Amino acid sequence: MNIQSAGEAVFLACEMEKQAVRLYERALMIFPDENMQQAVREILAEEKSHLAQFEQLGQAACSFEQAQLLSAKAAKTLNAGGLMAAQRKGAFETPKALFSHAAQEEKNAIQTYTSFADALTGEAAEAFRHIAREEERHLAEFEGYLSALGK
């Protein structure tokens, strides 16, 4: 991955968050169970909040080609396979399973952003470290939901 600036790092993070938002928005249309709907709405609100935080960091203008490459990387990194893959993994069987799935995706995000930071230097590395810390806070929120549901 050829990230050249903090703006591109933020662009990639925003693309990953947008995928999560789209996944949970689609889930609201498909899963009618009220308990599942409530769990999806809670996760969706968190993902939208997280996207807004990342968007506030600002994004540098990427060339069309770089934006396409970063978008493709995002599609393969987090929530790979989208809603159908999550369903096949059992994410929508119960609210507890959904929060567990969401927490695992946050762990994947932390690992991904940390590995990007470790491979880079300068402002791009710092941007990914900052984003990884935000994901750690997001993971803690999902783990809180799991605790409330009785892991």
Short description:
With 151 residues, the chain is an all-alpha fold. Helices cover 81% and strands 0% of the residues.
What features would you describe in this structure?
The protein has six helices and no strands. It is an all-alpha fold and 151 residues long. The longest helix is centred in the C-terminal third of the chain and has 28 residues, at 122-149. The termini are far apart. The relative contact order is 0.17.
Outline: globular
Q: How would you state the average pLDDT, rounded?
A: 83
Fraction of residues in β-strands: under 5%
End-to-end separation in angstroms reads 36 Å
Class per helix and strand makeup: mainly alpha
- Rounded radius of gyration (Å): 15 Å
What is the string of helix and strand elements? HHHHHH
Given the structure, what is the number of helices? 6
The level of helicity is: over 70%
Number of strands: 0
Which tags fit this structure?
mainly alpha; 151 residues; globular
